[in-house]
Amino acid sequence: MIFSALTLRAQNQISIEEYRLAVVDYSHTLRIARATTLAADEQAALSRTGLLPRLDAAGRFDVALRQHAGVKPFSFSVQPLVVQTIYAGGARRATYERDRVGADAALCDEFFTQVEVIYAADDAYWNLAAARDRLRITEQYVAIIRSLKRVVDARFENGYISRSDVLMTDTRLSEAEYGLVAAEQSYQVALHNFNVLMGVEQAAGNVPADSVMTEFELPARMVLDEILDRRGDFLASQLRVEQSLIGVRLARSAYLPQVSAGIGVVWQTRSPNTKWHTTIDGSVNLSVDVPIFHWGARRRSEGVARQQLAVREQEHAQLRDRIIRDETDAWSSIENSLSQSLASRRNLDIARENLELSTYSYNEGQLTILDVLSAQLSWLQLYENALEAALNLHLSVAEYRRVTCSE
User: Fold this and answer.
1) Which fold has domain 2-62+73-404?
2) Neighbours of 268 (CB within 10 A)
3) Helix, strand, coil fractions of the chain, as percent rounded to 5
4) What residue segments make up the domains of the chain, in order of their start?
5) Are 378 and 348 in contact (CB under 8 A)?
6) Deepest in the core among 57, 129, 289, 304, taking most CB within 10 A?
7) Closest Cα to residue 298, out of 254, 263, 328, 267?
8) How far apart are CA 250 and CA 22, in angstroms?
9) pLDDT tens digits for 194-242?
10) Which residues contact 342 (CB under 8 A, 6 or more apart)?
């Protein structure tokens, strides 16, 4: 008990807001999401280059193995070429629009990932706070039984009670000490998870500044349209529907005419190369490629793209239904947890008063040891119920904030 108390005092206390910032700053999951967003931005920028002219250069250097009379054994040519795609069936523009929408969707996913990380931080914070409060109340319970044991031992030595009262007290103390070990283990596990989430060694870690029994302001219920506008995954799903719609255009464009133009210059030796004289020639070209018959490939490709669009639309509708269900469940959980928390606090006050009266009456010889032990156990159970209800209320609020993407 003394070691546990010294450990709690030696560690730094951190508020829920500070802990969230620390977890967000350290989270590998969020860094992966951020890298995914940057990759999507780069892909969109890469697709945009397909809309711009490109410059290529080709070179050739030849060496003849046999030398003919008057002909030089070497020849070369250098040809820079500028090419601009005029029309590609809309493929270049559709590719850029698809990747641009994909980048926006990745950004929405990153935002929702941050919401998930904050929810994980809230879960770890309040679970540790509850484990710490449970450890403290278990220590207090052990101290109460030890105090009672001193009274029982003194009364037994004076011949006022029988040996059975001493044995019952010893048994209850042994059970309480066993429960204390289990509470200490649960606390250490919660503390380890708490510190790992923000990348801090447990020995030099922090502990919650707030108790799970601390009262706080509950969030107001939000309307569905506002929730959908806040949900990053829902917005990303909506963008992926748009992306699939662009994919239909992209599938169709592969079977439309392709038109491109280019201008180039050729610097080369004369053929045959007799005096190392070179020439510079310019060229302008126009390329037209018209698909005519591909055994229905265009229709099949467009059909595949439309089915992918239908899948995205159904996934989007399915996600909307899940958000509605999650919001309803989360709000119901808040209401139920609040009712349980209020009831458990009232019961705890009654149990505390009953424990004081039972202990006083036993000391006055008006009650038996069984009455006192029963009052102690009832007080512990109701206190644990109050902690569990308070923890559930905190987690329910965190879940509702996750579902609604609200702070």
Assistant:
1) Outer membrane efflux proteins (OEP) (1.20.1600)
2) 17
3) 70, 15, 20
4) 2-62+73-404
5) no
6) 129
7) 254
8) 44
9) 988 888 876 556 788 888 888 888 889 999 999 999 999 999 999 999 9
10) none
